[in-house]
Design brief:
The protein is an alpha/beta fold. It contains 11 helices and 8 strands. The chain is flat, with a radius of gyration of 27 Å. The protein binds zinc ion (ZN). The site of zinc ion has 8 residues, from loops.
């Protein structure tokens, strides 16, 4: 059975119009109604959002019946959606610019304490494509002169989140990183890719100089049909990701181990810190260190070259060296990174900061 969402502890946000006085008569505006309210999931978490309607407080004002609302509230999310634009755009960015998989996106969101199911992430990627589609014609128009002179190098990026389900496709101009077509296809057949992705790009009327994509068979066939003779290169990001996968996986495993060990050791230290007296000069320094450590633990990798495990390892060494220097100066006696010795708690009480 589906569990009802716990809405009791969701914090509320109220939005009011930016003007506080009536533009016609200058009298104060007064709150009249709640125009709408909804639970909204953003990158910052989940909120209960209220858009409040205000109107002129003078009953005899000729604009007394005009209701003013907050523009900011209207810009939080698409109409009828319970997900914020910030979340939709971030998910689209992760997917199409950073080439993240669905599982990685789910993990990134969970790390931000924004749990969104795989199904919803898929819907949000579709929403992102719709937003992109709506904004593109004007952007392409501004680059008309450039394309006329230099032509286009186009990149095709497709994602099939679940076998047999729809595919999400993005066609971009690679030099300007400008989206040309964003489309959901119900199959990855070559003729569909040709008709719905490549033909619209051809119809823009610019010279297409080359194509970049992954080595997918259907995409290759579609390019041969729609753009015969055009150079077609396998995307280097895709190739490098494939080649670097064993290293990336090994690094990820190391990161997970490091994280688990350090977190277990940090927990009792955090407890001691939270119980120390706020006058303790040592407290501020150690709290900073603990925060830096927590921050380092959040480090995240990106295939193929950004290895989070190595990053975390370097960061831990840096912190250890820094703590070592502090101890040498006589600043901190018995704090050592990862120290779990029971003496530690006692040492914490002795404020030794000079
Ligand atoms: Zn008025």
């Amino acid at each position: 059975m589906r569990k009802a969402k716990d809405n009791k502890n969701v914090s509320r946000r109220y939005y009011r119009p930016t003007i506080t006085t009536c533009p016609r008569c200058g009298a104060l505006l007064r709150r009249r109604c709640t125009l709408w309210s909804k639970y909204l999931i953003t990158l910052e978490g989940r909120f209960h959002v209220f858009s409040l309607g205000y109107s002129c407080s003078r009953a005899r004002c000729r604009q007394a019946r005009v209701i003013y609302r907050s523009a900011e509230a209207e810009q939080l999310s698409p109409k009828g959606s319970s997900f914020g634009y910030d979340l939709i755009v971030q998910i689209g960015r992760w997917r199409f610019w950073e080439h993240r998989t669905l599982d990685e996106i789910a993990m990134l969101l969970a790390a931000k304490h924004v749990p969104v199911s795989r199904r919803h992430i898929l819907n949000l990627i579709s929403d992102f494509l719709a937003l992109l589609r709506a904004a593109q014609p004007a952007k392409i128009e501004t680059q008309r002169a450039y394309f006329k002179r230099h032509g286009m190098v186009i990149s095709l990026d497709g994602m099939e989140p679940e076998q047999g389900n729809e595919m999400l496709f993005l066609v971009r101009e690679a030099n300007l990183d400008l989206t040309l077509v964003a489309e959901t296809l119900y199959s990855s057949r070559a003729d569909l890719i040709s008709r719905q992705l490549l033909e619209p790009v051809k119809a823009l009327g610019f010279r297409i100089r080359a194509v970049v994509s992954d080595a997918d068979k259907n995409i290759r066939r579609a390019v041969e049909t729609s753009l015969p003779g055009r150079p077609h290169q396998a995307c280097q990001v895709h190739c490098l990701c494939e080649a670097g996968r064993p290293i990336f996986e090994a690094d990820r495993a190391m990161k997970t181990d490091l994280r688990r060990d350090i977190r277990a050791k940090l927990r009792p230290i955090s407890r001691v810190l939270s119980q120390s007296s706020p006058d303790d000069l040592l407290l501020a320094v150690l709290t900073d260190y603990a925060e830096a450590l927590r921050d380092a633990l959040r480090a995240d990798g990106l295939s193929p070259f950004e290895l989070a495990g190595l990053k975390l390892y370097d960061e831990l060494q840096r912190l250890e060296t820094s703590l070592g220097r502090c101890q040498k100066k006589g600043g901190i006696l018995s704090w050592r990174l990862c120290s779990t010795s029971p003496r530690f708690a006692t040492a914490m009480r002795i404020s030794t900061l000079n």
